[in-house]
Amino acid sequence: DVTNPRQCQKVTKLRRSCIRLHCSSPIHLKASARSLYQPTTSMALPVMEEGKLLVDALNTVKIQVQQMKRYLELDQLMDALKSASLMLAELRTSSLSPKQYYELYMAVFDALRHLSNYLYDAHTQSRHHLADLYELVQYAGNIIPRLYLMITVGAVYMSVPDAPVKEIMKDMMEMSRGVLHPMRGLFLRHYLSGQTRDHLPVGSDDGPGGNLQDSTTFVLTNFVEMNKLWVRLQHQGHSRDREKRELERRELRILVGTNLVRLSQLDGVDLEMYQGAILPSILEQVVSCKDVIAQEYLMEVVIQVFTDEFHLHSLGPFLTATAQLHPKVNIKAIVIALIDRLAAYAAREAENEDPEETKKQEEAAARRLAEKVKTQKVKSRENGSSGATLAPEADTWSTPQPPIGPPTESVTESAVAATASPSETESAGALKKFRGVPENVQLFEVFWQQVVELIRARPDLSIQDITALFVSLTNLSLSCYPDRLEYVDQILSYAGEKIREYTDSPDLHTAQTSSNLAALLVAPINSYQSVLTLLAIPNYAPLLTTQLFSTRRSIAHSIVSSVLKNETIIETPEDVDGVLELCHVLIKDQSDGHSAAPNGVAVNGISGSGLNGSQGNPRKLGPYSVEREEMAEEQGWVARMVHLFRSESLDVQFELLQMARRHFDAGGERMRFTFPALITSSIKLCRRYKNREHLETDWETKVSTILKFCRQLIFILANQVDAPTIALRLFLLAAQISDECGFEDLTYDLYVQAFSVYEDNISESRAQLQAITLVIGALEGAKVFSVDNYDTLITKAALHASKLLKKSHQSTAVGFASHLWWQEKAHLETEAELEEGDGKPAAKTEEKDDETVKAFPHQDSKRVLECLQRSLRTAGSAIEEIVTVQLYCDALDQYLYYLDHGAPAVAPKFVNSLVELIAASIDNIASPDVHPSQRAPPGLIEGVQTPEMISRHFYNTLYYIHRRKNANLTDPRWEGVDIVGATLKMGITR
């Protein structure tokens, strides 16, 4: 460091004379400056720990600060300056680490604020003139105290009116060159930058007060000098401490970057000044320093601190400088940071746009791109070439277009294209902007050329870095140019080429590369409202097929989620085929899926045929149950997507379902979850045809075809994937729709199939009860059958009901089967149709002379009574009396139903007898010793059946009879019901 004050005085002699010309009335100091600022001989410090040295330095600063404050309060400025000089001398140390030196610096910085406030007040009160003090403090014996005091006084001097700010800035800048030690110099210049930031001139005058140009020169010069000191810091000390010095340098980087923050905060800095003076100076220093740490940090700071508008118009110079950085610099991170910032800017600007307009642009772009693909394929066929060889020649618009010329030429062209001077902009008038990007800025083209050149010029770039660049380019394209699908396709095509180049490289299968490729493929899904846009990107599906199983599965999840979230309607068979092909990893078996579980059962549902036939150890198959749940959830999403396959044309709608079936056929065990959605959609289509029977001439043929289609799918469910319960329900649902359409033979066959499923595949007792109840319920509403067919089916149903394993289940099922012999007319049909001449319901409405006699409404009260009586006999044979009483109560409900609906054979006497039987037995079920309170019910009702519940059931039934008898209705059948004894016993009064 320069320690001779005379040398510094010679350097600044001219400037001091200029300063004196602007001084109004110099004040004569009472004490001699030389007596107060005698040079002190530096003593060699003893070796001690850094922590102890810091404590001693802080104690010294604390003592000198107290003395300085006391002298300032007594208006003894010379003594105060001497204390300040002693305090600042502690900053001469070289034994502290950057963190410790910063702590010492902050303590000194806080103390100098008190001195700054005093100097300003003293100047305004005419006690001391800052011009004289500025010259006086330069007589300090050591350069560190001298320069800190000079900056302190100079900064205060800059804040007063009519100060020669321009000369002061130049003088302080040149004097600061005297400190050559990297760490001390960095903190000194940081102090200079911080003290002067609020007083930098921003005007345009050329007077002594300075202007904006002087301020930018001052800050840029300070930045350049600080960066040089920062780079020099790596050469301090021994080579074995290189890692420690690099860590210290990273701790000090914010001191250098603060200068760029100052530049960005200067008022009046416009695009012209940024392009002409600020950015070139910064980039020149960054490139010339040839230091990896400095270049990476400073380029990052430039991206962060300056505005998006500046970056948009200076892409050329910035990217040119990026290509000239040190080979070890992480250029990928720099380019990605700039791309991501501009993409985020475009996304923010897009929030102010109309979503409907954005959607229209996407749809128009998709149609335009699809038309291009179609045109190219037509040309290819005319030339006799196959569609698989289109990419290199025919589809040139979708392949990457790397620059042909030398890198310098393309960079220059890019810079010209991306940089427009303000004067040109003004002469051209107000430029149109889309998402904040002016039309004259070819943003994507510049980045694309630079990235391609970078990849070609840097063979050492890993596939991880290359794919990360592709992700950022895709985000930029989607944010700034959402209607230019060819940009995204161009990136995906180039990505596919690079993947093929790295096929044998292990880096291609690393977690980072897979993550980057997944982000690349998911970006269009998240950006576009409709996943159908993906089908207009020719290189999307080919790139997807080259990915790992986990990546394909993740992308398929995103596609299905987007369809469901946005409720995307898929209207054409081609679109259904395209979407399901993108999701094929969820639909079909994959050869590269997870490893197989024991006995051929594949984990994650990869093999569908091994589920039912596996006889392995259940312990070994433990993880499979978890994967089965995941597969069920996935297939549930796919099944929900089926209901969005919609078309206004009924014929096209059936084509959509057939296309989906072709994909689902290869799903194996997945068909358990996807086929029901197809079947229910087909049944909806049948109803649509039925509702348009007056407009569709051949609707019967089409509906019959659809029902046969459903029958095939349900048969597969019942036999191939072992889902008998859902298959039986769907057979009954299809039979009901067929019955509505009047197809007797097809309806009969569907019921037969339902019985076959029941007989062959359902063996558990309660499941049989539930299944036969469903069959009875469906048959009870059948209208299309002839007498013979209907009688065959209901007899079979009653037979199955009577053959159930448990007596309680037999009783319940036979009671329900009684409804098969007492069909009710629809509510819309008149009572006249239900009655014959004497006003009584007809037993059967049959026409003997007609071959097409229909059984509906089939009513035979004698067979009803037979079923009810058999149900009671079966209930009476139950071992537990609580089960018998409960079944009696259920049978009583059935008797009351038929009594209310006028079944002749069901007379009031049967109701009376059953009520007396229940009343006599109700008390016997209350004993907890004989009948436990916790037991499963014998019938269809799930849960726990207790004596209290049975008693409440009987009470409610009696109360219903009681109210019905007391109603103002003249029904002789209800008059014959006598429940007086039972009502008294149960506590029911009038």
UniProtKB/TrEMBL annotation:
<dbReference type="GO" id="GO:0005829">
    <property type="term" value="C:cytosol"/>
</dbReference>
<feature type="compositionally biased region" description="Basic and acidic residues">
    <location>
        <begin position="357"/>
        <end position="382"/>
    </location>
</feature>
<comment type="similarity">
    <text>Belongs to the VPS35 family.</text>
</comment>
<feature type="compositionally biased region" description="Basic and acidic residues">
    <location>
        <begin position="837"/>
        <end position="856"/>
    </location>
</feature>
<dbReference type="GO" id="GO:0005770">
    <property type="term" value="C:late endosome"/>
</dbReference>
<feature type="region of interest" description="Disordered">
    <location>
        <begin position="349"/>
        <end position="414"/>
    </location>
</feature>
<dbReference type="InterPro" id="IPR005378">
    <property type="entry name" value="Vps35"/>
</dbReference>
<keyword id="KW-0653">Protein transport</keyword>
<feature type="region of interest" description="Disordered">
    <location>
        <begin position="831"/>
        <end position="856"/>
    </location>
</feature>
<protein>
    <recommendedName>
        <fullName>Vacuolar protein sorting-associated protein 35</fullName>
    </recommendedName>
</protein>
<dbReference type="Pfam" id="PF03635">
    <property type="entry name" value="Vps35"/>
</dbReference>
<dbReference type="GO" id="GO:0042147">
    <property type="term" value="P:retrograde transport, endosome to Golgi"/>
</dbReference>
<keyword id="KW-0813">Transport</keyword>
<dbReference type="InterPro" id="IPR042491">
    <property type="entry name" value="Vps35_C"/>
</dbReference>
<dbReference type="GO" id="GO:0006886">
    <property type="term" value="P:intracellular protein transport"/>
</dbReference>
<dbReference type="GO" id="GO:0030906">
    <property type="term" value="C:retromer, cargo-selective complex"/>
</dbReference>
<keyword id="KW-0472">Membrane</keyword>
